Give the backbone structure.
Amino acid sequence: MYLTMDQVEKAINGRTGLGIKPGLDRVKSFLAAAGNPEQHVNGIHIAGTNGKGSTSAFIKQALIQSDYKVGTFNSPSLNGLSGHIALNDTIISDNDFIKLFIELEPAIQKLDKKGEPATTFEIITVMAFMYFAQYADIAVIEAGMGGKEDATNVFRPLISIITNVALDHTDYLGSNVQAVAVHKAGIIKSGVPVITGEVHKEAKQIIDAEAMSLSAPIFQIGHTFHYRMFDDKQLDGYQWTYGDFTLDVSLRMRGMHQIKNSSLALMALAILKESGYLLSWETALQGISDAQLPGRYETVHQNPTIILDGAHNPAGIEAFLKTVDQDVACEHKTLVFAAFKDKDIETMLNLVKPSFQNVMLTTFNHPRAADKQDYDHFDASNTLSFNPGWESIIDHLLSTKKPNNIYYFAGSIHFIEKVRKYFAKRWYM
């Protein structure tokens, strides 16, 4: 019997050693044993190398403003296991999480006995479908990795969204953009509208071909719908166009990439509206404007300014740097960076060095975290240094206040999660 959240988390996290197991047969059996809750979820499915979380946040806030109960499944999570699952802006309660796990345990044991144990991610995914089937009017569900063989790819969505296609998780998804595109295009369903962001020509050809073969209407940024910025420097407002229809959009989330992500969200809202969902553009735009996402260019401290961003692959770093370069009114920029050792660290470091006076490499408590030896073979320079204690870095920054400096923490989402919790405990974010 599981009585506490700690016990449930220990039981679920105890399966992390199973690793990542691509494929849908096991999770479909799992869902069948749980009563197929995914068949009772009205949802939007989002895949993409970067931008899933932000696109989800924009859609969620617009729908909340329109009085819908919105479930969100985020991957990865900045708030532990339960942080993957939320209704509106509230993470699932410990009581509900425990109840779902207890309800699901017979199905988990059944798979164990068959020699097909469910992974941590599969358990959380099935719990999310159970929760949303019971409580959500509509859900926004992010794929964990890839799409085609991801555990979330088991329901028929209202809309599929592919935010972008770039190299990441190459051990699983392939070492070229075409291979990754095949995985992302795997979320496209017969007759279901699919929205795509800006993608490489090779990826676009694969996505277009899959959509055509499945008679899935395709809505492409820059083709079916467009954005035009009001100000090339501010990047916090733009005009969105779909046919003859236009909207003026303002954003709290900064960056060129957020203009693109919110454009995808607006296209999803337009499709929902056309299909009968009750949406007012005035209230939806308020939701888009209010949307924020923890760990995405998030300011967590002033004087000195400290910004967190979960840019953890080369494409994410490029988007991050475009926003960093807008912060011109500061004398000194320092980056504190930590990544998983299986990421393309060399490319990311080569990208960041020109934008910062100092780049401080660090590590964190995770079996996949890069440590000093993983950084040692990279080209040393006056820009790069290594300090294993990121907590002491923060304490030092805050004790030597330099109001004209900006300090950025970036890299693995798991690293950013730890940094946010550190700030939350000490400075009541």
Summary: Residues 298-427 form a domain with the Protein-Tyrosine Phosphatase; Chain A fold (CATH 3.90.190.20).
